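Predict both folds.
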Amino acid sequence: MFFILCAQFVHFGNAQARKYVNEFLHLGVGGRQLGMGKAGVASVDDVYAGYWNPSCLPQIKDNLQVGFMHNFYFQNIANYDYLAIAAKSGENSAFGFSLVRFGVDGILNTLDLIRNGEIDYNRVTQFSAVDYAFIPSFGSEQRMIRNYNMVFAWGASAKIIHRKVGEFARAWGFGIDGSVKLEDYNKKWGITLVMRDMTSTFNNWSFEFKQSQKDILYLTGNTIPQNSLEVGLPRFCLGGYRRLANDKFFGLGEVNLDLTTDGKRNTLISSSFLSADARIGLEGGIKNEEKHFQFSLRTGVYNFQKETKQNGKFGMTVQPTVGVGLQLEQLNIDYALAGFGAGGSGLYSNIISVRFNINKTK
């Protein structure tokens, strides 16, 4: 049924496969993962797995978890919010629901500023460009004992997307993600494959402008957009982690390789067929399991890009991140800082996320 519906959209719409479709869904969520340079698909084990890797959902340690993140994106030019809930649905399975909102508010609308040759600033209004995603997820795992003491897990997520630009444009879209994971039973290491938009993601755009607004767009040399179907091609993420720990200290390293299939990008590995970008993260800290206390320091790099530097030489830049985390009883607080360094935009992003752990009372 799903593929029949996709075929109908392609047949009746003006379908176009484009780069950077629904990029707000690839910015990353959670202070832990963003503090580690977006390296988190393999080691995530909490409510944020609904976004990063649904096959990790069964690893949540509590009956119910609620998570919230706010990202002061580019020094609050945009606001990026994430709200999620995850719960056990059996001994070896769990489900989650995530809500993503990315918005730029207070954009000035000057299309009606000039009317009949007269300027009237009272006709200047404001609008918002807002993107939403509603993501139900499910994950299941099974212990493999016969030959190896390992755990195999799988998961899937459906994405319902709504994008709105003031009163001028709106879109509804959908897509499906899937993932598999293989992990040591003692959680010393793990590898995973996350398949985002594995069926491709479809956004059906509709536009509405007044005739006077169309005239302004035409006179100022702007193209008047037409209703169309936008297609986002599949992308994949390979990830692996290694953990070291004792009673008081812990450390973790993770490497992710983000693979895109929408054409050549300015990434670490770039080709017309496949482009790949690396994400590397480190985490370490102290813990006291009896008191449910943990303090973490994190750092990472991502966004490897080739560019011409001020000395005229061609070189590679990266985007560094740093972060801290604190666990106190049933509350986790994580903070990350991004947007600085040679590969940054010069505009900082401050990310704060929290997680509440809820368990049944005996």
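Second protein follows, with its predicted structure tokens after the sequence.
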Amino acid sequence: MESAGITWHEAEAECNAWGGNLASPADEAENSAILDMTRDMGSRMWLGGHDTGAEGEFVWTFGNAWTYHNWNNGEPNDAGKGEDCLEMNNGRWNDMPCAWAAMKMYVC
């Protein structure tokens, strides 16, 4: 879904309103499928991972096990502290502040 700018929590709430959650890729094939579906819309989007419960312990909003990751080099790094939500940037993952509202896309 594309928007003018949305926080991670707003994106998750919109997915919940539609009966779903932010996407939680379980393997490389799912991660690639998300990237392929959205390639023409932009390179950055929210996914359903977060470590708001315990720093460094990422979980999926959907409740499925965290068995796959595709972190960018040096990530997650909690740079500046408070980077608790997951973005995909050109297929690779990065932790970002959940309140960052410059993100324009998310995937449910």
